[in-house]
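Hello,

Our lab assistant flagged a job as stuck in the queue for most of the afternoon. It eventually completed. Since we weren't sure the result was trustworthy after the delay, we are filing this so someone can double-check. Below is the sequence as submitted and the structure that was eventually returned. Let us know if re-running is recommended.
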Amino acid sequence: MPRPAPFSVVVDGIVYRFQTHGGINTYLNSTLPLVAARPGVKVEFLMPNPCKGVPPAPPVRRVRRDWLPADGKRSGTVSNGIGILVDKLNSKLLGLRIRRRGRCIFQSSFATWTTDAVPHVGMAYDLNHELFPDEYQGPFGVMLRRNYRECLTRARRIIAISHKTKSDVVKFYRIDPGKIDVVHLAVDRQTFWPDRNPATLDLVQAQLGHREPYILYVGGRQGAYKNFDRLLRAYAESPARDKLTLVVIGRPWNEDEVRLMGELSIGEKVRLIVSPSDALLRGLYSFANAFVYPSLHEGFGLPLLEAMACGTIAIASDIEVFREVAADAAMYFDPASPGDMGRVLEAALDEGVRQEYIRRGTEQLARYSWAKTAQQTYAVYQTTLDAFEN
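-- returned structure --
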């Protein structure tokens, strides 16, 4: 069988200008080096300035994105006056540079596009801005709805990270489902594994300041769709409150959260850890009695896989995308009902139940790997080039 003709992939790393961590970063950092290691494939990552996130590793080639200086105070997608002009000029220059690449694909990390002289691969992570428009008001929401639609409409093919995201793209943007490929995310098994080393337990307990059992929440809390307030209410009302601490990984508390915890009298029972190391995060997963994920919607739900990889039972909202990702390997609750959420928190304390779901999680996790994700991403590139050239 003849070897495919060489080609280049140029990835706009704009999201790294304003985001240090996230599912987008994880996907690109995990798949691009594997794609770049394939014979005949060159991957160039366009580095924004400033670049907050750690870019993909070699053999991905890192090159400068912006020839004109960008304002580091701006998100990289919302600007006014001179900033808009700078972004437009950088985009024009980017198009000229890409035209010289020959056989090439352009892929954006966040709703940007360039010259139509090369085929685009669009990325659809989630459509929260369409599903929850009240939480995306003002210039940012207007920009996001406009640019996301434009970027995906221009794309020759689209990678959606879940079937739920694919169906949302079809629903809101009326895009042909035949040009959308579902490519699931995965989890790094060298970072997330059942780490029950006594030294790791000492690290966890030193960080928490106690030896009590706990349930774990990991991720963002901004936006009503994260459903974090309802988790606090469910925890406060559940008998599990007397048996478990609630440990939260994420950004510092905001005033509303502090006020709510005071009203619920749970301030002493909730612990917050900001920006843990990989080792500490792995340990927190590994020694948790359960991981809880109360979101009303997500594009995929990487923490589900991280918890499973660390041998921890996952209890999650009964929503379409979590069923897609976790199948029967998670315990589910009604995300609109604090009572039902509390019931599942209590049920997760049963050791027999925990062990059964941990076993299911191990089996479910075998379906995911970054090597598989990279292979499917590469196949999308090939399909895109074939359609563009024929």
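-- support follow-up --
The delay was a queue issue, not a problem with the job. The result is valid. The CA atoms of residues 105 and 381 lie 7 Å apart. Confidence is low (pLDDT under 50) at residues 72-82.
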